[in-house]
């Protein structure tokens, strides 16, 4: 993350969402699978007071908005990743809007709130615990080097200047200029894997289908990420995308012409293709776990302010059943 302060804020966000999920779990178990009792309880609470899980989750969304606002300068100006910078800035009003909708009774957003908590539980240990971070980065570094070798490129593996691991590859250009391609945590695909792991963990569905959804998403993300780092390494190390040099340097606020291939391969091509890939993976996961449609419908509602019925559009089961045999009535 950008600093120890954003890490701390991230943990606060996770703790707040987890607290909301915990309260919701306890209160749900009090009424079990009795749909009538659950509906009665919710009507009574809606009439007299705001349910505590809704209050906690709303607070989590407000804190999540602050988190993305704090990250915006890091993405936009430090990393010069305009795609991530724009997305982090857009996330601020999106989080506030989600909190506002939830506070005003759209309880289906509790599923997305649980998902954010689970995403954080997956992601932040690798961000905060050195041995986990180092291991993941070195595995990705090794596999990237192996993949580049399959295409005939074998740059020297050296110590990276940012992290100090053996996680960087040194290329030498035709004019004798040395280039370092360093694999950091952002290069591991952890963020995308955490998103899908969090979404899958958040919904109530049979364990078998959850495991199948993980088996569909995580390996694909891993392989695509290795393809991405391999593409960036080869393209940057061999300066294959030296296009529109002056324009690219101006856009990314750099004066180093050797960085043009990196900016185009990583910040533009790879990040745009990553969005396309995530959409495709989402479709595959939803085929295995149609309960996730609730989250997608909520996101679409936030964007368009229109309700959608994607279960019918995708020809998916309408009444998912939990592993214990009880229907997830009003679990949205």
TrEMBL record:
<keyword id="KW-0812">Transmembrane</keyword>
<keyword id="KW-1003">Cell membrane</keyword>
<dbReference type="InterPro" id="IPR019127">
    <property type="entry name" value="Exosortase"/>
</dbReference>
<dbReference type="InterPro" id="IPR026392">
    <property type="entry name" value="Exo/Archaeosortase_dom"/>
</dbReference>
<dbReference type="GO" id="GO:0008233">
    <property type="term" value="F:peptidase activity"/>
</dbReference>
<feature type="transmembrane region" description="Helical">
    <location>
        <begin position="268"/>
        <end position="286"/>
    </location>
</feature>
<dbReference type="GO" id="GO:0006508">
    <property type="term" value="P:proteolysis"/>
</dbReference>
<dbReference type="InterPro" id="IPR014522">
    <property type="entry name" value="ArtA"/>
</dbReference>
<feature type="transmembrane region" description="Helical">
    <location>
        <begin position="109"/>
        <end position="126"/>
    </location>
</feature>
<dbReference type="GO" id="GO:0005886">
    <property type="term" value="C:plasma membrane"/>
</dbReference>
<feature type="transmembrane region" description="Helical">
    <location>
        <begin position="56"/>
        <end position="75"/>
    </location>
</feature>
<feature type="transmembrane region" description="Helical">
    <location>
        <begin position="82"/>
        <end position="103"/>
    </location>
</feature>
<keyword id="KW-0472">Membrane</keyword>
<feature type="transmembrane region" description="Helical">
    <location>
        <begin position="179"/>
        <end position="202"/>
    </location>
</feature>
<protein>
    <submittedName>
        <fullName>Archaeosortase A</fullName>
        <ecNumber>3.4.22.-</ecNumber>
    </submittedName>
</protein>
<dbReference type="Pfam" id="PF09721">
    <property type="entry name" value="Exosortase_EpsH"/>
</dbReference>
<keyword id="KW-0378">Hydrolase</keyword>
<keyword id="KW-0645">Protease</keyword>
<keyword id="KW-1133">Transmembrane helix</keyword>
<feature type="transmembrane region" description="Helical">
    <location>
        <begin position="214"/>
        <end position="236"/>
    </location>
</feature>
């Amino acid at each position: 993350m950008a600093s120890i302060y954003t890490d701390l804020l991230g943990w606060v966000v996770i703790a707040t969402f987890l607290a909301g999920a915990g309260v919701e779990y306890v209160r749900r178990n009090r009424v079990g699978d009795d749909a009538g009792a659950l509906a009665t309880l919710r009507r009574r609470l809606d009439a007299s007071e705001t349910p505590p899980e809704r209050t906690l989750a709303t607070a989590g969304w407000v804190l999540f908005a602050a988190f993305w606002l704090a990250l915006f300068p890091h993405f936009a100006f430090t990393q010069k990743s305009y795609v991530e910078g724009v997305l982090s800035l857009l996330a601020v009003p999106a989080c506030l809007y989600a909190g506002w909708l939830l506070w005003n009774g759209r309880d289906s957003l509790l599923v997305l709130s649980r998902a954010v908590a689970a995403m954080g539980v997956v992601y932040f240990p690798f961000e905060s615990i050195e041995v986990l971070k180092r291991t993941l980065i070195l595995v990705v570094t090794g596999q990237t080097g192996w993949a580049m070798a399959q295409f005939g490129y074998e740059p020297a593996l050296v110590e990276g200047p940012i992290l100090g691991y053996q996680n960087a590859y040194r290329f030498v250009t035709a004019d004798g200029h040395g280039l370092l391609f360093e694999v950091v945590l952002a290069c591991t695909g952890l963020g995308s894997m955490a998103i899908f792991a969090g979404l899958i963990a958040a919904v109530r569905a049979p364990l078998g289908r959850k495991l199948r959804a993980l088996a569909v998403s995580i390996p694909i993300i891993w392989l695509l990420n290795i393809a991405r780092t391999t593409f960036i390494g080869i393209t940057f190390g061999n300066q294959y995308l030296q296009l529109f040099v002056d324009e690219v340097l101006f856009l990314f606020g750099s004066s180093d012409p050797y960085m043009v291939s990196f900016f185009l391969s990583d910040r533009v091509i790879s990040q745009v293709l990553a969005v396309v890939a995530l959409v495709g993976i989402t479709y595959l996961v939803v085929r295995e776990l149609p309960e996730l449609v609730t989250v997608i419908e909520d996101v679409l509602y936030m964007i368009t302010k229109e309700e959608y019925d994607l279960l019918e559009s995708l020809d998916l089961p309408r009444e998912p059943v939990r592993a214990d045999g009880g229907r997830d009535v009003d679990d949205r």
